[in-house]
Amino acid sequence: MAGRFLEYIKSTLKKPKATIFLMFLVVSFFIWFLISLSDIYTSHISFNLKYNGIPEDKLVLGNPKTSFETNVETSGFKILGYRLFKRDLIVDLVDFHENNDAYYMLPNDLEDAIRTQYKSLNVRRINTDSVVLKLGVNQKKYIKVIPKTRLEFENDYQLRDSIKVEPDSIWVRGPEDIVGKIINIETEVQNYKNVRNNFDYKSPLNIPDSLEELEFETKEVSISGVVERYSEKIILVPVQIANLPDDMSLKVYPEKVKLLCKAPISELKRVNEGAFKVICDYNEISSESTFLIPKLVEEPKFVSSVKILDKKVEYLVKKQ
User: Rounded CA gap, 265 and 314, in Å?
Assistant: First the structure.
């Protein structure tokens, strides 16, 4: 049924009289449309707010109003044009009222600005509250760079020292209300597996969208680290006595305790008893116990871990 109707329409339009009628119909509608647009209407249109006259040493803080609507009375042609192409309303700081650190413009001030810049518009009502501006200064602040590097080492390999970041702190500059809240900035996450060699790579900063407009000293840092193969070694270290009175003597059994040390292979030869200090504290002697707990109080920095294998030692106290 629908197909037959479409065929009928097509065949009708092929007739000369139908074509002429359709043409007159379109022209009539267009003339009516133009006449309608020439009439005066009341309608709403929008303006973009553009701020002017901000001092060079000042910044606009927060998120000030960027647009507003107003009811106007004008011809349909102009209303259509304003809706198709949104216009800017430039407001100058000298036209704002000042209150402490804030500047504000009342709705009637906006009306005056519209009448000045768009004389053909008859403003009926401003559909917004006051426009408020808060001005601040550029703040420069140094913040810590936090590396987000995940390393998975091959067996027996690990970092010789901590990961190094260059630079480890950078300055950031921008509105004081934003910069003042920043404590640190992280790098983008980097994942590395089966690491066995030294590394040095560039890593972009992970800057949130909310901070994109700030100025950063750099948006990329260097991440590096020294990787070495580690091994373990057991050594014997003599136990020293701390806080021993002059008139007392104390012997412990065993006199040396075993330490299990983990260090870079290149440093294993430096792992000897002279590099460590183990003590037992005389003040910890009590009648309820027959042993003391040895404690490691000194160790070289190149050793990554130390474990005392002899957890306790027996003792004998004598008065001299």
Answer: 34
pLDDT at res. 10: 56
pLDDT of residue 237: 96
Over residues 201-213, the mean pLDDT reads 92
Q: Are 95 and 107 in contact (CB under 8 A)?
A: no
* HSE toward the beta carbon, residue 249, CA cutoff 13 A: 4
Q: What are the CB-based long-range contacts (under 8 Å, 24+) for 119-123?
A: 120/74, 120/78, 121/72, 121/73, 121/74, 121/78, 122/72, 122/73, 122/74, 123/70, 123/71, 123/72
> Residues 116, 122, 125, 131: what is their CA dihedral angle, to the nearest 10 degrees?
-20
Q: How many whole angstroms separate alpha carbon 85 and alpha carbon 105?
A: 25
Phi and psi angles of residue 183, each rounded to the nearest 5 degrees, phi first: -105, -45
Is the pTM for the entire model greater than 0.90?
no
Task: Decide: 165 and 147 in contact? Cβ < 8 Å.
Answer: yes
- Whether 128 contacts 107, CB under 8 Å: yes
Strands 87-92 and 40-52: parallel
173, 179 contact by CB (below 8 A): yes
Percent helix, strand, coil in the chain (nearest 5)?
25, 50, 30
Mean pLDDT of 37-58: 78
Residue 52 pairs with which residues in a beta bridge?
92
CB atoms within 10 A of CB 257: 22
